[in-house]
Amino acid sequence: MRKNVIFIALSISTLLPLFYLAGCETGGQTGALVGTAAGAGIGQLAGGDTKGTLIGAGIGAVGGYIVGDQMEKSKERKQQAPAQPRYSESASQDTVTVWVTNSNGSQTPVRLTRNSDGSYTGPKGEQYNTMPTQEQLKGAYGF
For residue range 89-103, what is the model confidence (pLDDT) as tens digits? Predict the structure, then answer.
């Protein structure tokens, strides 16, 4: 029995990292694959027979699929969320730094000067009647 436990533990610890490299099409599939392997190993350790292994594999597959699918959906939501501009104001309240998000995901700081009439002046001397949008600034300062 002790040899079986050691063999199963070594097999799982050796094969589990390979499942992450398996290249499944979706996060749910990857989760199901990993869950099946982990569940089968745990089921074998707990039950010590084929029935325990199969029950563990089934429960692991379902649980792994749910977790993997939710992780993929969360990642997609983060990627689809529009980038929010970051603003920071200086202590004098006369300048505002707007962080323009570039096409590669990096950000470029653009320092605007607030005028007494509420308009803004950009670093190149351009005038904006109101706080400029990301798109307005991206044309001049982004890439």
Answer: 554 568 888 888 888
The residue behind tokens 């029935």 is 51
Residue 48, token pair as written in the block: 């010590």
Stated pTM of the model: 0.46
* % helix, strand, coil for the chain, step of 5: 55, 15, 30
Q: Are 138 and 82 in contact (CB under 8 A)?
A: no
| Locus of tokens 């040899």 | 3
Cα-to-chain-centroid distance, residue 46? 34
Tell how far CA 28 is from the center of its chain.
15
pLDDT band at 61 (very low <50, low <70, confident <90, very high): confident
Q: How are beta strands 86-89 and 95-101 bridged, if at all? A: antiparallel
